[in-house]
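Protocol step 4 of 5: obtain the predicted structure for the target chain.
Materials: sequence only (see below). No template structures provided, no constraints applied. The aim of this step is simply to have a reference model before the mutagenesis design in step 5. Sequence pasted as it appears in the construct record:
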Amino acid sequence: MSEKAVEENMTSDAEKRLRSFLESKGEDPRAQPLTPDASAREYFRVPWKGESRIACVYPEPFGGDLPFLDTSALFAEAGLPVAAIIDTGGDEGVVIQEDLGNTSLSHLLQAADESQCEQMIGQAITLIARIQAATNIAFERGSIASKLRFDAEKLGWELDFFLEHFFRSLRNEPLPKSLENDVRGEFTDLAEELEGFSGVLTHRDFHAANLLVGDDGTLRIIDHQDARVGSAAYDLVSLLLDRVTEAPNEGWLAEKRSFLLEERVKAGLEVIDQEDFAYEFDLVAVQRCLKAIGTFSNQAGNFGKIHYTAYIDPMFGIVSGICGKRNRFPAVREMILRYTGK
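Step 4 output (structure tokens):
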């Protein structure tokens, strides 16, 4: 087999489609693969008209109703810092966008001192308020984000996903049927209660790995294609509790909740009582943490990405602590105790 044939055989379908698109535009077809996270999309850094750009390649061709294009236009109209769309190739499943660099907030937080960490987290929380302030724009545009909602069906589906992948994909050890029935009943109650909080635009996956830090120290938002209407606490829960290896201090969480409420008022949004918001935050945290554990379990159990398992026990600890504090969901607490001893 020739060297060219060997190289072609090693090239992924996504990269082949990207090269075809770049060649059709008269651009250099060389592409540098970038490591994706838990995504079905593939990313590449490519040269484009003398500048560096990022190419996102979807598993399938797409039409003009691609959610990422819709939400990018929505966020841009609202003045939110997202990558500019440079070009698209629906037949090849390719989106060329602005290159925002390599430094994520999650990486910066690992190396920064406490003062810088607090400043950057504050900047991220301000972005959450600005996203929520774009709710009316989403509805005025008829954005897909305004037509999707964290309703009981969606929230319940995510909790079912947790049960499927933690107990089967990762542990291969299903819950005893009686306990599973009790847990499912509590999940139904949780999802129905949370539906009542869904009223503002959310990013939906606002963790630190989805925020990039520019050379000027400002944050830019990525991976926003799943934006939808949800709780005012949802993105804050994701920012503060996703992918933690140690549960944050409650006083620190209260401080961040208060800051978001202040930023919401500055953005022209209604006042929310602090105690009411703390309760809402806790319920969202139970659902979001379990949903995230389901995702980590799926990635570890089905795709061999075992580094995700480091987040599971700490997030179970957060859920158990909230259930105890709020005197809610005893079956969920029993489930966690049975499998973690905590």
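Step 4 remarks: Confidence is low (pLDDT under 50) at residues 1-10. The longest helix spans residues 274-303.
Proceed to step 5.
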